[in-house]
UniProtKB/TrEMBL annotation:
SUBUNIT field: Component of the Mediator complex.
Keywords: Activator, Nucleus, Transcription, Transcription regulation
Keyword Transcription: yes
Function recorded in the entry: Component of the Mediator complex, a coactivator involved in the regulated transcription of nearly all RNA polymerase II-dependent genes. Mediator functions as a bridge to convey information from gene-specific regulatory proteins to the basal RNA polymerase II transcription machinery. Mediator is recruited to promoters by direct interactions with regulatory proteins and serves as a scaffold for the assembly of a functional preinitiation complex with RNA polymerase II and the general transcription factors.
Organism: Hyaloscypha hepaticicola
GO biological process, one term: regulation of transcription by RNA polymerase II
Locations listed in the record: Nucleus
Lineage: Eukaryota, Fungi, Dikarya, Ascomycota, Pezizomycotina
Stated name of the protein: Mediator of RNA polymerase II transcription subunit 10
Length: 154
């Protein structure tokens, strides 16, 4: 995710504040609505139009190609919509990533160990391939000492 520029952040923040203000004004107009009076209908209609305008403005800003806004994972939005704390989601996500990293590290070490054992066995059984085996071991992150061992116990 690219960093959000301060100008984009400030513009979107101001537009969000405008939307909140328009929603508040609309709430006030709905509570004060008088079925018999014409002026309240016009004011309510004006408030709805103002809200529509500010929502269109923030939509065009968010969809502008030069605006760099952060993307929020849909799972996080769903999590918050269900009334849960986003900090807990973040903590669970970090814990899951840590567990996945530990699992991957274990797999890498297991495959590395298997590579070393296989290289030792291949050099012991096919000494003419020692140079090729050494090349493969080094290119896959192994150490030369594995192939250079004189004795292999099978």
């Amino acid at each position: 995710m690219a960093p959000v520029s301060q100008a984009d952040h400030d513009l979107v923040e101001k537009q969000l504040k405008d939307v909140i203000q328009d929603l508040y004004q609309l709430m006030v107009q709905v509570n004060a609505y008088d079925l018999a009076g014409r002026p309240t209908r016009d004011v309510l209609e004006s408030s709805v139009k103002q809200l529509d305008t500010t929502l269109q403005r923030i939509h065009s800003t968010a969809n502008h190609p030069n605006t760099q806004l952060p993307t929020i994972p849909p799972e996080l939005i769903q999590y918050v919509d269900n009334g849960r704390n986003p900090d807990i989601y973040t903590r669970e996500f970090v814990e899951l990533a840590r567990r996945g990293n530990q699992l991957m590290k274990g797999r890498l070490e297991a495959f590395g160990s298997f590579r070393d054992v296989l290289a030792e066995a291949m050099v012991a059984g096919l000494p003419e391939l020692k140079k090729d085996v050494l090349d493969v071991v080094v290119k896959t992150g192994g150490r030369e000492e594995v192939v250079e061992k004189k004795e292999v116990v099978l």
